[in-house]
Amino acid sequence: MRLDKFLVENGLGSRSQVKEVLKKGLVLVNGRAEKSPKTHINETADEIVVSGQKLTYEKFVYYLLNKPKGYISATEDERHKTVLDLLDETARQKEVFPVGRLDIDTHGLLLLTNNGKLAHAMLSPKKHVEKIYRAQVAGLMNQSDVEQFARGIELKDFTCQPAQLKIVELDEEKETSLVEITLAEGKFHQVKRMVAACGKEVTDLQRLTMGPLQLDSGLALGEWRRLTKEEMKSLERFQVEL
């Protein structure tokens, strides 16, 4: 890896800012001052020290985001803000992307990483990775709806796999429901369409879990953090390099 790329990925700034750091002789490679940004290093074996601080190379990074409404699950868009706009410059320099997608008006758990193999594994239909959503619904969900979800709801373009509908709370006066929906698919607007097939309407949708990961109640909307060691360990089941 080029030295300047290594320094950028470690959050030392942009390519131009990193060049200035190098010019000042502040970067040591295996104990020797190195000023050329084009120098190639072994990012896992060489010792890189900047202003007395040793840098450690991270091939992959993992961020847990509490996505707010109004942001799309993409890396760039001409019309809307993306979830990457919620990250700081150092995190964006890792070239992360969202694993799967949440609609622009859906909020909750979203994993961001630069590990393409993990993302593929978590999104693969063969893995049957369950996701739990909490939905506010206009209309009273009932046992018939629970059974319909369990059978697999037929939509115009496909039949959903069996899913679990749990009725958390009913407000008969306002004719609204609070439900949790567990499913292993993630097709476009699927949860909303499944509820609509039962004659009701989702008015608010939040993702609580994705596989072994759970939404952190300590994260406010728009906040993010790195995965903990325990969360990283839970991803080992996908049998990819982490």
Automatic annotation (TrEMBL):
GO MF annotation terms: RNA binding; rRNA pseudouridine synthase activity
Top EC group: isomerase
Enzyme Commission identifier(s): 5.4.99.-
Keyword tags: Isomerase, RNA-binding
GO biological process: enzyme-directed rRNA pseudouridine synthesis
InterPro entries, alphabetized: PsdUridine_s_RsuA/RluB/E/F_cat (IPR042092), PsdUridine_synth_cat_dom_sf (IPR020103), PsdUridine_synth_RsuA/RluA (IPR006145), PsdUridine_synth_RsuA/RluB/E/F (IPR000748), PsdUridine_synth_RsuA/RluB_CS (IPR018496), RsuA_PseudoU_synthase (IPR050343), S4_RNA-bd (IPR002942), S4_RNA-bd_sf (IPR036986)
Location of the RNA-binding S4 domain: 1-66
Gene Ontology CC terms, in alphabetical order: cytosol
SMART domains (UniProt xref): S4
Statement: the UniProt record of this protein carries the keyword RNA-binding: yes
Family annotation (SUPFAM superfamilies): Alpha-L RNA-binding motif, Pseudouridine synthase
Membership in a protein family: Belongs to the pseudouridine synthase RsuA family.
Protein name as it appears in the record: Pseudouridine synthase
Native species: Streptococcus gordonii (strain Challis / ATCC 35105 / BCRC 15272 / CH1 / DL1 / V288)
